[in-house]
Amino acid sequence: MNLSRIFSIVKKELLQLKRDKTTFAMVVMIPLVQLLLFGFAINTQIRDIPVAVVDQSNSALGRVLTQTVEASQTVKVVAKYPSVILAEKAMAQAKVRAVLVIPRDVAERLSRHQALGNATPNSSNYQLVRPIGQWLVDGSDTMITGAIKGLANMPLGELMKQPVNRQVTTFAVTPYYNPAQRSVVNIVPGLVGVILTMTMVMFTSAAIVRERERGNLEMLINTPISSFELMLAKIIPYIFIGALQVTIILSLGYLVFDVKVVGSLLQLALMTLLFISASLVLGLIISTIAKSQLQAMQLTVFVLLPSILLSGFMFPYEGMPEVAQYIAEGLPATHYIRAMRAIVLRDVEVTEMTYDALWLMGFTLLGLVIASLRFKKRLD
Amino acid sequence: MSDAVINANGLTKQFGEVIAVNQLDLTINKGEVYGFLGPNGCGKTTAIRMLTGLLMPTSGEVSVLGLSLPKQANLLRYKIGYMTQKFSLYDDLTVAENLAFLADAYSLKGQYKRSRIDELLAIYDLAARANQLAGSMSGGQKQRLALAGATIHKPELLFLDEPTSAVDPENRRDFWEKLFDLSELGTSILVSTHYMDEAERCHKLAILEKGIKRADDSPEQLMVNLNCQVVEVEVNNSRSTKRSLVSHQHIHSATQLGARLRVLVDNSVNDAEAWLLQFDNVVAAKAVRPNLEDVFVSVTGERNREQTV
């Protein structure tokens, strides 16, 4: 291995990158745009679901009840229908996602409802356990169903200007690391993993193929530069770019979304470095397989999708079936997102994440060897 | 021979069904400018790639500068230079950056590296364009840059794959001057071409067709050894006369040159001039000195003849 040769390729890559304005812009714009986009858009707290109301009571109470439900901000009443059949039709046409049916005897039901008054409710009394209204929900989207279900035990005290029965819960729940329950707190550290997977794999997957497509490879492999030197030199420039992107995402996450890094910045940098290297090497392997830049891009997407969907970024890792967990375990993003959330949100020491750290390290070294072996200094 | 820089025996390369190079035997001596002459697709590039160690031969033995290929290909890198058919330096680097990259790749150091780059910029008339992007230069300038890059480490042996295919005649002439300058300094050169005038300038020459070496000698000797006589005839109705001439079994080919035909007549025919005058429409016939194109047509034409007859 010859350091000056490695340095010469790194210098060449940086010069080419400097002149490739589009790629250079992508380095900055991808993390910026995606963070803002996902930070604002991905929200597990659903608001303003379009719903319809069928008020069979046609009373002042019915109208007040509708307003109270709307005041929860979970739903937005966009239509009123005289009959359930018309409302069901609207739901089938996806004009509304749910329908609130207020029965004729809503006043009677409410006056006996356990949400009011101070007496212990007698659950055996049918008259007392009758709900005051009904939600018909387009149940295809489970997230929306969940949000409407959250309205099932809506407090109604304000409605009658009476004191409210205290909620009787079986368990007290205390959220530790994200007490405000803001989903962006969980998204920002995960997004670092997803954006890095995307940009790092994308950049290096084109690295070797581009040399081939532009006809430079024949010259390059005729020089004394060895496969390993070439592979190493191809990833070094992008380590800095990855570091730059992480800085952009975490700074913006702090400034715009108020997500603070609780843990040590040094440990965060260490894990990030390991993950960047692993992703770059993954891209490099793709680059030795792909025959054209288009193929390289397709293979990148092949890696990117599971990295978004299985890594724990979108859905909890623990909730996935075992097979999916095994697949997720083979993706660098899973290990990194797990570690990032631990460091950023819970101030966990790296020593407690040696498994993830060692896995990423092993992946990088093994991948570098595979890429070097796959890349033959020959044209056939 | 002890001072052979390239020795190949039965070199063959097969891509699937296609045999790109077929049983090529080759000996190239030190200091020679050796030419590969042949049409596109005749296996010139494949042969060069095998001789530089970039392609694995299907069968056959190659030794270049005493190193056995493809096993010792890595040791060969410092000793050979290779100018590819397509411009293969970086379009998005400047002339100076391209040369600096190659200098580093060949581990040239410090003061020597700088002086070598300056020297190359001067030799190849690129000093004024040192800071220009290679991609924005003309064909001739790119070609000079490619030659500078291929010779930056002063290789003993230089491979040039159709170096002048994208260049005007004047630049081609200048380029060959540079090649002879390198040759004089002791560099052995293997150059492929499809231009007759370039082939004629080589010390030795191999004529390739469909992966097979048809002839192999100095251009002068090839012309002397020509197995037919060259006669220029003046004819009426040149197209149809040409057709009737080439259908005769003793006539290898007839090439139209304006109103005349250049006819290759088999050596078995005595007094070819008189013999040709017997044909209809032939007005005059005059034997002329053979040139390399006649050699090329006769050695490559033979096979076509065998196939059609």
Sequence-ordered SSE layout with sheet pairings:
The complex is a heterodimer of chains A (380) and B (309).
Chain A: H1 3-19, H2 21-41, E1 49-55, H3 60-71, E2 75-80, H4 84-92, E3 98-102, H5 106-111, H6 126-129, E4 134-137, H7 142-149, H8 157-160, H9 183-205, H10 207-213, H11 217-220, H12 227-257, H13 265-289, H14 293-309, H15 322-329, H16 332-346, H17 354-374
Parallel strand pairs in A: 1-2, 1-3
Antiparallel strand pairs in A: 3-4
Helix pairs in contact in A: 1-12, 2-9, 2-12, 9-12, 9-13, 9-14, 9-16, 12-13, 12-17, 13-14, 13-16, 13-17, 16-17
Chain B: E1 4-15, E2 18-29, E3 33-37, H1 44-51, E4 59-64, E5 67-69, H2 73-76, E6 80-83, H3 95-105, H4 110-123, H5 139-150, E7 157-161, H6 169-184, E8 188-193, H7 196-200, E9 204-209, E10 212-217, H8 219-224, E11 228-235, H9 238-246, E12 251-257, E13 260-266, H10 272-277, E14 282-288, H11 292-308
Parallel strand pairs in B: 3-8, 3-9, 6-7, 7-8
Antiparallel strand pairs in B: 1-2, 1-4, 4-5, 9-10, 11-13, 11-14, 12-13
Describe the structure.
The complex is a heterodimer of chains A (380) and B (309). With 380 residues, chain A is mainly α. Chain A folds into two domains: 234 residues, no CATH class; 112 residues, abc type-2 transporter like domain (abc type-2 transporter like fold, 3-Layer(aba) Sandwich), CATH 3.40.1710.10. Chain A has 17 helices and four strands. Chain A has a four-stranded mixed β-sheet, with helices on both faces. The longest helix of chain A is centred in the middle third of the chain and has 31 residues. The two termini of chain A are 24 Å apart. The mean pLDDT of chain A is 86. By secondary structure, chain B is α/β, with parallel strands linked by helices. Chain B folds into two domains: 215 residues, Rossmann fold; 63 residues, Alpha-Beta Plaits (2-Layer Sandwich), CATH 3.30.70. In chain B, the strands form three sheets. Chain B has a six-stranded mixed β-sheet with strand order 6-7-8-3-9-10, with helices on both faces. A four-stranded antiparallel β-sheet of chain B has the order 2-1-4-5. In chain B, helix 3 crosses helix 4. The longest helix of chain B has 17 residues. Chain B is elongated, with a radius of gyration of 22 Å. The chains are: A mainly alpha (380), B alpha/beta (309). At the A-B interface, helix 1 and helix 11 of A face helix 3 of B.
